[in-house]
Amino acid sequence: MSVVVITGTSTGIGLESALHFARKGHAVYAGVRNPETANELTRAVVEEHLPVTPVTIDVNDDASVQLGVEDVLRRAGRIDVLVNNAGISCSGATEEVPLATARQVFETNYFGAIRMTQAVLPTMRAQRSGAVINVTSLAGRVAMAAHGHYTASKHALEAASEALAQEVYAFNIRVAIVEPGVILTPIFAKGKQAAEDHPPTPVYADHLRRLRMFFQKQLQQPTSPTVVAEAIEHAVTTDRPQLRYLVGEDARIIAKGRRQTTDEEWVATGRPMTDDEYCDVMCRRYGVDLYR
To answer: CB within 8 A of 67, min separation 6: which ones?
Structure first.
């Protein structure tokens, strides 16, 4: 079976992916910044006797990534699959989010994935096989007001993934982008706290409120992280690989609605209007009641 390295496995998609691959019999190396805080992962591994080894990896730190990858290679001798899942959220108007916060988002969501990829690729090239799965988001396709920096980090990773897929094709290395919609994970609670640390001014308050309306509605019937884990495994194992995989009905509906909306219509969504008017516009656009 494969040797699988997954980042950000303390909670959410990363945790479920580590458990899912291990239950399938793969040797999983679960990247966490601090193994002592990965309580849920540790408990599941012990209770189910799963082949999961926690590895200390902080994707924001060059030395931590290099040491973590070297640790895996010393133990397993190879790396067949890298799942770049570690990420943080951020909401707020482009003008008002501090640049330090925007840099932090890019450091984790974009450079963290690139840092891991650069560390693993020499081994995969030598093997002439492997898979790099980058977990982005619906936000990798659709940019909404008050979500600019987070969206930009996911757009950037998607662009890099598309280029990477071409670059490593000759080495029999597969690259795939997994794009979840709204998933019930702690990332939203962390994003809410970050927004509270930098509350919006009245200038952009309407945009942030509408973004929260969207997420609150979707969180009433969220997609399970397990579904994302299954999609990641499919992207690794299918004999008919794709570059992109949308995950969740909400992701498919919204991506389709965005494709059918002109850029000018999309920009005009930011015009002054009541919340009821906004809901009507969005409901007509997607053909489903997303907000009420």
So the answer is: 56
